[in-house]
Amino acid sequence: MDDDLPALVRSYLDEDLLVNPDQGRAETEANTLWIGLPDGGFDAGAVRAALIHVGAGLRERFGSREGPPAFPLTFYAWHDEQAGQLRMSMRSAPPDGLPFGARHRPVCEPDEVLASALADTSPGSVRWEELRPDDASPETGDDAWPPFPVYVVAIRGESETPSGRR
After folding, report:
1. Domain for residue 133, yes or no?
2. Among the ranges 55-59, 97-101, 142-146, 156-160, which has the highest mean pLDDT value?
3. Is residue 162 one of the residues assigned to a domain?
4. Which of 6, 37, 71, 104 is such that its CA lies 20 to 30 A from the CA of 111?
5. How many structural domains is the chain composed of?
6. What is the pLDDT of residue 142?
7. What is the 3-state secondary structure (H, E, C) of 83-118?
């Protein structure tokens, strides 16, 4: 087990984050943190608590306390299977408008993201027997690859997360 993973997740609150809705690509580059997953697994409960803590801390730091917000702001985290990483970012976008090229599904609890990361028995590599052709295509509408879960926290601008809770 790796005890450093929750601390690395919480360290996101110490980052200098860019918030500028007119510079989406720059926001993504400046605000994305990649954390390699340990081979021996990790304490999912501690990482879950750390992700929730980060979302609450960002809401306190950037959330609108008075009047309507000028633009939405979302913190999000996902398991990048190809890289074997837990990734986190914040973007001036609503939870359903995040910059993913692949099909994804916003979720309001980090459990599915962490389950995916824990199921990764060889982070950052794909075993030969697990390789399969990529027959999915936007043109054909093939749904061979199901959408992956992305933990989202609406920091401001969206009063509801996917479950209808803040």
Report:
1. no
2. 55-59
3. no
4. 71
5. 1
6. 52
7. CCEEEEEEECCCHHHCCCCCCEEEECCCHHHHHHHH
